[in-house]
Design a protein that fits this description.
Number of strands: 11
Largest sheet: 7 strands, parallel
CATH architecture of the largest domain: 3-Layer(aba) Sandwich
Number of helices: 12
Shape: globular
Structural class: alpha/beta
Distance between the termini: 16 Å
Order of helices and strands: HHHHEHEHEEHEHEHEHEEHEEH
Helix content: 40-55%
Strand order of the largest sheet: 4-3-2-1-5-6-7
Length: 371
């Protein structure tokens, strides 16, 4: 159902609100005649017209315009890297080059690039510069925001088309998560903690796809262990979070272990999405009958009425037929415990649970629709 403006707006156009929607749709067809997204573009334009009718605040209009421009520029730029797996790396911009974490972040970037994973950072100095330095320009993306101090593009990506400028933090943070097949969090300040907690909240509530979240610290470091101790002693003990929420995080102390954690997550799991009321996991390998039987009981708390069932592609995902070779695991997910969902992913990633245990190259993750 399109968003139709009220009668006051309709009087400025031919006919009623429904006629206005049709007029706008005809105009969009001129520039995008075959777009399956035509109804969405129509509703966007109707929303802008409604804002123009209200015309209450110039500041609101400027925020909307700047946001749309940033989104459009980011979509266009990132389309060049579509299909490439990416890892967002967070950490302090103030980490000096002589610090052990700087060297570890640089090693992380190098190992990620060797695994053909692109490295996304905020594009600044410290941990961000180190990760890009290790990854190299061809494997680096920077989402930079201009601040009065310290936040300038690092030498690896400065002046390149791999650098995206952002005016608003919220649009920048959107793409940090939207583009990420995994997230690695290094020690940092308020910004790093904000990003860590926001990512956890988005995944815990199902507003963002399930991806591996890796906490990386230097050997002997206590930054993340201290944070985990606080979470367990205060949040988990007081029942502010579920015990299984802790399964969304993995603490490691080397670049190799961080990348192995990411690769293991995609050992069989490919991607997930909602299709109407069904939660669907795409897999590289079908699960064996004994594994499916065990799953019905061991993970019964994740589903509602029906059991788990796997099937081949049936044409239901018209926009992603390129993944038609993947097996689907479908169930009526309760949507309440994503830590347990992570345990299910770990289960299907174990080769002993597959029908065919022959090794296959890991494939790219799809764009995930969780709406």
């Amino acid at each position: 159902m399109p968003y139709v403006p009220n009668d006051l707006l309709s009087t400025h156009f031919q006919g009623n609100g429904a006629d206005l929607a049709r007029q706008i749709e005809e105009q969009i067809k001129v520039v995008a005649p075959d777009s399956p997204n035509l109804p969405l573009y129509r509703d966007m334009m109707l929303t802008v017209l409604r804002m123009a009718q209200d015309d209450r605040s110039r500041w609101n209009a400027k925020i909307t315009l700047q946001t749309l421009r940033e989104l459009d520029n980011a979509f266009r730029t990132l389309d060049r890297f579509k299909g490439r797996r990416k890892v967002t790396v967070f950490g302090s911009a103030r980490t000096p080059a002589e610090h052990p974490m700087y060297n570890l972040a640089r090693e992380l970037g190098q190992v990620l690039a060797q695994a053909d994973l692109m490295v996304i950072t905020g594009g600044g100095g410290g941990i961000m510069a180190a990760a890009h330095e290790g990854a190299g320009r061809e494997h680096s993306l920077g989402f930079n925001i201009t601040l009065p101090f310290e936040q300038h593009a690092n030498p690896t990506i400065e002046g390149t088309s791999n650098l995206l400028p952002f005016h608003f933090f919220f649009t920048r943070k959107l793409f940090f998560v939207k583009e990420a097949d995994a997230l690695v969090l290094c020690p940092g300040g308020f910004g790093t903690l904000d990003e860590a907690l926001e990512v956890l909240t988005l995944i815990q509530t199902g507003k963002s796809p399930l991806v591996p979240i890796v906490l990386l610290d230097a050997p002997g470091g206590g930054f993340w262990q201290g944070a985990l101790d606080f979470i367990k002693a205060q949040l988990e003990a007081n029942h502010y979070i579920l015990p299984n929420d802790m399964k969304l995080l993995r603490l490691v102390y080397s670049a190799e272990d961080a990348v192995e954690e990411i690769n293991q997550f995609y050992n069989n799991f490919h991607s997930s999405r909602w299709l109407k009321n069904k939660f669907v996991i795409r897999m590289h390998h079908s699960l064996s009958e004994p594994a499916m039987e065990h799953m019905q009981e061991a993970f019964a708390d994740l589903r509602m009425a029906e059991g788990f069932h796997q099937h081949s592609y049936a044409g239901e995902e018209h926009d992603e037929a390129q993944f038609s070779h993947l097996t689907r695991l479908a169930f009526t997910f309760t949507g309440r415990n994503y830590g347990r969902l992570r345990e299910l992913v770990d289960y299907i990633n174990q080769p002993e649970n597959w029908v065919d245990t022959d090794s296959h190259p890991r494939q790219q993750r799809a764009s995930v629709n969780v709406s």
